[in-house]
């Protein structure tokens, strides 16, 4: 996912938010959404305290999609006081098993 960019003043906060999003679990697989590779990006507008999280789902037919989107929004807003989160659900690039981290693969027994 994201890497630390010393030229980006929000890079540290993005990394913190990424780690916080490990609390959001896929309700079917019981693996966090970071290790599943579902989070594509986090953008922060620090002065306005706005966060945009770009995520995907493993399938456009995922029955838990709304639940995951709500959990991401609630996670950010619940852990970062005053921040307003917007969650954009995207389908490009298409998610695949290659998006799963090594830790996620271990947790899934792959």
UniProtKB/TrEMBL annotation:
Residues 14-82 form the MIP18 family-like domain. It comes from Mucilaginibacter ginsenosidivorans. This is Metal-sulfur cluster assembly factor. Transmembrane segments: none annotated. It holds the Pfam family FeS_assembly_P. InterPro entries: Fe-S_Maturation_MIP18, FSCA_dom_sf, MIP18-like.
């Amino acid at each position: 996912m994201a890497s630390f960019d010393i030229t980006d003043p929000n890079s540290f906060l993005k990394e913190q938010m990424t780690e916080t999003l490990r609390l959001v679990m896929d309700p079917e697989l019981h693996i966090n959404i970071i290790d599943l590779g579902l989070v594509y990006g986090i953008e922060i507008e620090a002065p306005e305290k706005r966060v945009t999280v770009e995520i995907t789902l493993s399938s456009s037919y995922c029955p838990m999609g709304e639940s995951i989107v709500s959990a991401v929004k609630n996670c950010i807003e619940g852990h970062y006081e005053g921040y307003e989160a917007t969650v954009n659900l995207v389908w490009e690039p298409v998610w695949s098993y290659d998006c799963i981290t090594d830790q996620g693969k271990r947790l899934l027994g792959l």
